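Need a sequence for this fold. Nothing fancy.
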């Protein structure tokens, strides 16, 4: 299974984007960002007053409970996207014949622990490596 950009969301605003949409996404390590968020954050870092404001208070401090609740599904969708990306990355390593033992060493866990975390969903039985 190749790592795909289809079906991804912007990790900052939650908008769906990627190929086949009007919202290009870029990113790495599982996080994705859309052009609108890049433009927004670029404007903030170029505006000393906006930077000073961002240092004074977290955005959620001025949000209503309804607004905070509305963001919760987006946070979980972004977290799940990152978890899915980690699984795809492990699948990439397995397709390159990197052993479960080596992946486990990299993560500081046993071969068995990494297999239990990643192989069960992918269907890789890990019988030989
Ligand atoms: Zn965005």
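Here you go.
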């Amino acid at each position: 299974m190749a790592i795909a950009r289809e079906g991804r969301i912007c990790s900052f605003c939650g908008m769906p984007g990627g190929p086949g949409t009007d919202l290009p996404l870029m990113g790495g390590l599982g996080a994705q960002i859309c052009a609108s968020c890049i433009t927004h954050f670029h404007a903030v870092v170029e505006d000393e007053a906006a930077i000073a404001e961002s240092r004074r208070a977290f955005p959620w401090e001025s949000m209503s409970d309804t607004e905070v609740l509305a963001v919760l599904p987006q946070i979980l969708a972004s977290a799940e996207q990152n978890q899915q990306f980690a699984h795809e990355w492990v699948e990439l390593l397995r397709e390159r014949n990197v052993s479960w033992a080596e992946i486990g060493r990299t993560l500081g866990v046993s071969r068995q622990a990494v297999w239990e975390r990643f192989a069960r969903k992918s269907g890789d039985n890990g019988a030989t490596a």
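For context: DSSP finds five helices and four strands in the chain.
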